[in-house]
Amino acid sequence: MANGTVLWLSLDEFGQELRSLCCDLAPTETAQDVLVATPPGPGSVVVVAASWEPARELAAVSDAAIANDFALVPVVVNPIHVRVGPIVAGAAARCCYHCFAAMEQKRNASNKIGTYLQAVRSYPDNSVLRRIAGHTAAHVCLSAGILEVGVSDPVGHDAVAWYSSHDGADLRMSRFEGVDGCRRCGVAMDDRTTFEGTSWI
Amino acid sequence: MDLSDELAFVSRPAEVHRNAAVDLRFLRDGSLVVVGSTSSARLTGARDELEGLVEVWSTLHGGTSRSVSDRLGMSEPDADHALGILWQAGALAATAQGATPAERFWLARDPAGDGRRPVCRVVTNDAVVRDVATDCLERSGFTVGADNADVALWLGGELDEPDGGPVLLASAHESSARIGPVFDDSPMSPCFRCFRALAKDLGASPRAASRRSWQVTVALAVQRLTSLVLHYQAGHVKNTVTEVSLAQGTRSVHATVDPDCRQCLERMGCAGTGADDEVVRYELGTYELGTEAGDAMPVGEPMPRYRPALGYRQEALDSAPAGTPLHRARLVGRAATGANPSEPHRRLTPSGGDLRSCDAFYILPAGGTGGSVTVGLCPPDAAAEVHEREVACPEPSIKGLLDGADAALVLVADLRRNARKYGSFGIKLALLETGCALANAAARAAALGWHVEAREGVHSSVELRALLGLTSPHEFITCVARMRTDRGRREVET
User: So which domain of life are we looking at (chain B) (predicted)?
Assistant: First the structure.
């Protein structure tokens, strides 16, 4: 169980509903500016919930989580599926949000649904189209159940993301790794980082 | 809400959605124009939704619309993209209308809907579970009621005969949830007796799980109910039992009818052959067998029929004089399983997954007195030898098979080799392998002056299985062919 506080960054109605359903976690609402300016201490967990892909927000909070050693658990409802994760378990995290985005983009390029998802993500930040997918109580309940697992043991579920598509009753779990090209996560994994004293990256 | 910027953005579908089958153009005057559709079978149903979507958009904005029905024939049909765009456009229309998130979700996926939400009946014995289900269903766009229910959700309760409509079974367990199967009146659905037997196997007391477990279970069930109501992938998930575990992900099995249920066998047209037909038996037995079929035989272990106990002895391929029927039959049998005479280590056609599920047998008169026959077995590997045995006094049905023919070719698939890796899909791969083997045999036989004529259907019989020495229920006869001298070719040669 996380030994710190559980902070909540609800970016829309979905986040608010999810937070109200997870009141047994004693979540404290916060704002992104406050979160980045005065980050919580080690052991804390920050949940970012939205019914769209808040790429910029997640990237910023992910960087703050690694720098200040707190955990990040994103919950996102995409037009295609519900996703909980990838969990960034603080300073020792296996991969950051940038690695996840790069890896998922590579994965999505090979399937049609993913291509559509990437297209939605490529919309401008202020686009209405990014926030129109809608959600139901089923998505909230499902996210709450998965979220409990992630929040209770973020270190044990580091770099894990759960997916559940809207049109089935399946649940898929993926574990991500750092990618080459990421200064933080890729460097530590790659022996090619030193070649005659110079870095490849 | 000013959507003018959005309209310009969406009107670039060629860049955003490559290979899109449907191109929606939102014009600045508020109209929506659908510029393409497809003749793809998957999108046949979506065409109605498209037209419904256009109507919705037109109603909201008073703009003009064009029907999609006269714009068929786009290349590269892509239903996923099309549905994605449909969702997007429907949700956009709902957003402009100020809809709630749940309304947006439904309108995005059911743009042609008339506003009536599906009625769901909840069946459970536990009040807490009922509260969880009712709350989740109502806030997800369903109307909970007992009358005129479109669908029903059975949550681990006592099962009574339903009075119509698809029924989804769901149960929560301590660390997992089980969703499915669906009971309805479709021909391939299990009958209520089979359904109840499955429910008993799956069954858990409602109180065995926590409230949170039930929330997750109901949420997953509602997602599947939504899919059923909207007919998205309904056929795909209908008879699937999905076990969801946060720690281990999803495991799905296909729920089939009870092999002892005569009612279902008759309904599926298997009543006459159900007890004896290996294919039907395997299909029906998949669910019961589970992983047993895959674990029963380690990889690399030879089949029992290769053992000397059955009387087969190894013979070198060229131990029979060239040109004799026996030598020809050996060559054809070896070719059927893929052996290439010029390059024994290479197959003429690749075997799916290199699993080599198909063996070839040849049967021909032994030449001696007493009417005995020689049965040869060609293993699906590169060994340049065959296994043969002589069987005396064959049954009349075997004599009939050889009557007027020089030899018979029998192809036998061992389902365990495929099922170990592919489950019930392995049967399709085995049949595909049979087709390749028969084509190989026909090509080789033609070069030797034989004509191969395959018999329609599968003529499996107890006598033939005994003759070949088939002892395992997982190996079944997929093809019986007769080989005779090609008269046309002989006339040309003479």
Answer: Bacteria
